[in-house]
Amino acid sequence: MTHKVSSISKAAFVSGLLAMAEPACVWASDWPQFRGPNSAAYLAGAQMPAAPKVEWSAELPGRGLSSPIIVGDRVYVTASSGPKQERLHVIAFSAKDGSKVWERHLRATGRTMSHGKTCVAAPTPCSDGKRVVALWSSNDLAAFDLEGNLLWVRGLTVDYANASNSLGMSSSPIIVGETVVTVIENDSESYTLGIDVTTGRNLWKLERPKAANWSSPIVWQPDAESAPVAVLQCKDGLMGVDPATGSRLWEYKDGASTMSSSVVANGVIYAASKGITAIQPAKTGGDPAQIWRSEQMNAATGSPVVMGDKVYIINSAGVLAVADAKTGERGWKLRLKGPFSGSPVGAGNLLAAVGEKGLLQIVDVTAPEGAVVGSLDFKDELAEKELILCTPSLSGGKIFVRSDRKLWKVGG
Amino acid sequence: MILRTSCLLLFISASLAQADVASSVKAILAVGREGQGNEEASVAWRELVKAGPEGLLAIVEGAGKGNVVADNWLRMAATVIADEALEAKKPLPVAELESFLRDTHHASSARSIAFDVIQHADQAKANAIEPTLISDPAQELRRGAVQRLIVAGKEKADAKDEAAAKSTYQAALDAARDEDQVKVIAEALTKLGVEVDLPRHFGFITKWNVIGPFDNAQRAGFDAVYPPEKEIKLDAKYAGKGAEVAWQPFETKHEYGKLDFNKPLTMLKDATAYAVSTFDSTTDREAEIRLGCKNGWKVWLNGELLFGRDEYHRGAQMDQYTLKCRLKKGANTILVKCCQNEQKEQWTVEWEFQLRVCDAAGTAILASNP
Predict the structure, then answer these.
(1) Which one, of B200, B195, B192, lies nearest residue B158 by Cα?
(2) How many angstroms separate the CA atoms of A288 and A355, rounded?
(3) What is d(CA A177, CA A221) in angstroms, rounded to the nearest whole number?
(4) Strands (DSSP E) along A160-316, which ranges?
(5) Distance between CA atoms of residues A122 and B119, nearest Å
(6) FRET label pair with A404: which of A28, A389, B244, B358, CA 20 to 30 Å apart?
(7) B39 CB near a chain A CB, below 8 Å?
(8) Is A211 in CB contact (< 8 Å) with chain B?
(9) Do A102 and B71 touch (CB under 8 A)?
(10) Is the dihedral of CA A215, A216, A217, A222 positive or negative?
(11) Of A154, A188, A199, the CB nearest to B39
C-alpha cells in the first residue's frame, strides 16, 4: 500500500468535510452517481410514476450499461462505439426535453476487450454537483465541468499497464469530499485510487487483492458529525478507508460479492456478503460487528436496496425478496419478469426494476405480498438482441433508463 | 499610415495568438504519468478552445507528439472548437486539415483527429476523402474505405457478376486489417471459390518448437524462471513437471494461427509451457508483436521481455495485446511462455495463444525464412 499524505490531501480532506456540510452544491433532485445519492438507490420522500409513460427518448451514439446521472436540469450519459468500442462518449442532455446540450469524444487508451454482453461504457459516471467524472472499462477517466469543459483526463492503463480485465470492468467511481474513489481491481495489476477531483492527480493508491472485481465503492458515515468513510468491497470482504489518505480504518473479512455492491442505510452496511450480511462498523474504529445474515437474500448481479425498514434484492430467478432491515427476517417474495442485470431502485413506497428484455416494472412494496402496479415495455424500441442492462435513475419524479441505442425519460 | 498601423497590429495580434496556441499545445503535450501536468494542461485546454478555429491546425499537428493521453486532450479541444464553430457558423480550415490528413508523414493519431474534424465540419468532403484512404498507414482510417468495397463486392455478388465480385472482394482483402472485416471478406471469397490464406494475410507465426510441461501449481509458474528463459537449446532436455522434457517441433494449422498446447502436451492443469520461433527479418525495423491469449503469458524478443500478464480464462481475441518492438536484420528469436492454471470448468480447457508480427497498421510482416 502506498500513501501520499501531503498538505494537499489534508487540505482536500478539510474541504471534503466542508463539502459535506454544504449539500446545496448537489441539487435535491440530483441522481449524481450509480444508485443515486449515497449509492442508496432510494429516495425516501420522492415520487415515482406508478403508471409509467415515455416522455421523451434520445438517440445515443454507442453502447452502454452505465446509468444516466442527473445533475440540475441535465442528464449525463456515457457510451462507447467503434469496431473495438474504442470511441468513448460523454453526452449531456436537457432533462426537460431530451435535446443534446453537448457531447465529448475520447479514444480509449487502455484495452477495450470485454464479454459481448457488456461493453466499455459499463461504469456509471459520478458528479459532485460541479463536475462530471466519467470512467470507462478501458480505464480512461475524464472530468468535465457541467458545461463540458475538460478539466482533466487520465489513462489509467497507460499509468499501470497490466490493469485490465478481459471480461470488462464495471465498477463505478464515487466522489467523497474532494476524492474520486476509483476501483480498478482485476486479476493482475489490481488497485484502488484516490484521485484529487480538482486536478486528476493521485492522492493515494491502494494495492488490492488480485481478483476480478465489478462491485462499486460506497460511503458509510455513522452520523452527520463524523467524516465519511469510503467502503471498498472485494472477494475478501469490505474495508473502510479514509477517502483523503487511503488509510485503512476497519475491515470486514468474511468475503463479499465481486458483482453486487453493498448499500448503507441508517448507519448500517448491508453487505453483499454470503447473501446479505448487515454489519455495523464502530464509530470510533475497530472492525464491524455482524447484526444479521441471510444467505437466502442472494442478489444476482444487481445490488440490494433498503426502503424504510426493509431490504430488497432480486435473485437470479428474477424473484424480488424482502427482509426486515433490523433482524433479517424474511418476508414476501414476488416473481418479476426477468432476467435482470441492473439493480432495483426505489422512491417512496414504489420500487422500479428493468429487465434485460426491456420491461420496466413498478412494484408497490407496501402491498401485503408486494404487487406490480405498473409497467412499461421498451421491447418494441430495442433492436434484435439489444438488451437493457442498466440500473434506472430517478429524478424529479421521473425514471431514466438507457439501452445500447437510446435514453428514455419516463413519467406518468 | 493608419492602415499600416492597423495591419501591423493585426500581424502582432495574430503572431501572439499563434504563440499562445503553441505554448498551450506544449503544455498539453507535457502531461505525464499519474496526471502530472494536469493543472497546466487544464488551463491550456481552455485557452485553445478560446482561440477557436485559428488554432485548430496547430492542435491537430500536436497529436502524436506526446503520449496517448495528451492526444485525448487535443482531440477534445479540436472537436469542441469544431462544434462551436459550426454552431456559430464560423468557417473551419477544412482544406488545410485535408492537406494535413493526406500527408502520411504525420502521426496516425493526428491524422485521425483531422479526419474526425472534417467529418464534423463537412460530411460530403469526408465521404469524398474516405475511399482514397484504402491504403492508409493508419489502420482505423482504412476501415471506411474497406467497408465500401465490402458493400460493393456484395452488390456485385448479388447481381451474379462473379468476376467483378471476386476482384472487389480481393481489393477489400488486400486493404483490410481488422479481423471482423477480414472474416466477412474471406467468407465471401471462399463462397466464390477463392482460397484465402489467413495466416499469411495476418502474419501469424505457425511454426514453433514447444517444450513442457513445467509446474504452475498455485500459479507460481508465471514468476518461476525455467530453463528456456535462460537459454534456447533445441536439443537440450530439462527436468519438467514429473518427467524430463524436450523441445519438439509443432506447426499449427489453425486458420487464425492458434497454437494449442493441449495437442502436443495433452490436456494438463497447473502447467507451464514454452514455444519458440525464429523470425528472419530482411531489415532492422520497428514492428509490433500482437498476441491473443487467455492464459498467463510472457513474450520475449531476442531475450528481452516485452510484456507478461497473469490473467486466466477471462477471454481471448486476436490482437488482444500489442507489444511494440524492434526487429533486427536476420534471425530474431520469439519466445512465448504460456501458463495453464488449476481451474476445472469446461471453459478453462484452453491452453493456447496466437501471435503475429505486423506493422502499426496491422499489415503482416512476413519472415524471410519459410
Answers:
(1) B192
(2) 34
(3) 12
(4) 174-176, 179-184, 191-196, 202-207, 218-220, 229-234, 237-241, 248-252, 263-265, 268-271, 276-280, 289-294, 305-307, 310-314
(5) 27
(6) A28
(7) yes
(8) no
(9) no
(10) negative
(11) A199
Which range (A136-150, B17-31, B326-340) has the least confidence?
Answer: B17-31
**Neighbour order of strands in the sheet with B259-260:** B259-260, B352-358, B285-293, B321-327
Average model confidence (pLDDT) for chain B? Answer: 95
Q: Which amino acid is at A52?
A: P
- CA geometry: angle A166, A169, A170, nearest 5 deg: 155
In this predicted structure, the answer to whether residue A83 has a pLDDT above a threshold of 50 is yes
d(CA A84, CA A366): 46
Which three cell numbers, joined as nine digits, stand for B135? 491504403
Q: For chain B, what are the domain ranges?
A: 2-132, 139-196, 202-358
C-alpha distances (whole Å) from B2 to each of B9, B10, B13 are 10, 12, 16
Given an 8 Å threshold on Cβ–Cβ distance, is B72 in contact with A158?
no
User: What is the tens place of the pLDDT at every residue in B51-106?
Assistant: 999 999 999 999 999 999 999 999 999 999 999 999 999 999 999 999 999 999 99
Answer whether B33 sits within 8 Å of A150, measured CB to CB.
no
Q: How far is B221 from chain A (nearest CA, A)?
A: 15
For residues B351 and B367, give the distance between their C-alpha atoms in angstroms, rounded to a whole number.
25
CB contact under 8 A, B76 and A150: yes
Q: What is the pTM of this model?
A: 0.93
- A280 in reach of chain B (CB within 8 A): no
> In the Cβ-directed half-sphere of A288, how many Cα atoms lie within 13 Å?
24
User: Is the pLDDT at B13 greater than 80, yes or no?
Assistant: no
Query: Identity (one letter) of the amino acid at B115?
Result: F
State whether residue A139 sits within 8 Å of chain B by CB: no
Q: What would the grid cell of residue B81 be?
A: 472548437
Q: Which residues in chain A touch residue B113, judged by CB atoms under 8 angstroms apart?
A: none
Cell output for A194: 484516490
SS3 B314: coil
Cα nearest neighbour of B315 on chain A:
A166
Which three cell numbers, joined as nine digits, stand for A376? 412499461
Let me know the angle formed at the C-alpha of B196 by B193 and B197, rounded to the nearest 5 degrees: 150
Residue B138 in grid coordinates: 493508419
> In the CATH scheme, what is the code of domain A2-411?
2.140.10.10
| 3-state DSSP helix/strand/coil % of chain B, to nearest 5 | 50, 20, 30
With beta carbons less than 8 A apart as the criterion, state whether B347 and B313 touch.
yes
- Smallest CA–CA separation between A56 and chain B, in Å? 24
CB contact under 8 A, A187 and B314: yes
Pick the residue from chain A with its C-alpha nearest to B311: A187
A364, A32 contact by CB (below 8 A): no
Question: Cβ of A152 under 8 Å from any chain B Cβ?
Answer: yes
pLDDT higher than threshold 80 for residue A9: no
Interchain CB distance below 8 Å, A152 and B41? yes
Nearest Cα residue in chain A from B140: A83
Q: What's the pLDDT tens digit per position in B152-207?
A: 999 999 999 999 999 999 999 999 999 999 999 999 999 999 999 999 999 999 99
pLDDT greater than 90 at residue B369: no
Distance CA B343, CA B349 (A): 8
CA distance A117 to chain B (A): 13
Give φ, ψ of A356 to 5 degrees.
-60, -35
* Residues B219-237 pLDDT 10s: 999 999 999 999 999 999 9
CA distance B51 to chain A (A): 14
A159/B34 CB distance under 8 A = yes
What is the rounded distance in angstroms from the CA atom of residue A332 to the CA atom of residue A64? 33
What pLDDT was estimated at residue A28? 56
Instruction: Kindly report, residue by residue over B336-357, the tens digit of the pLDDT.
Output: 999 999 999 999 999 999 999 9
Q: CATH topology for B202-358?
A: Jelly Rolls (2.60.120)
Q: Distance between CA A294 and CA B106 in Å, rounded?
A: 62
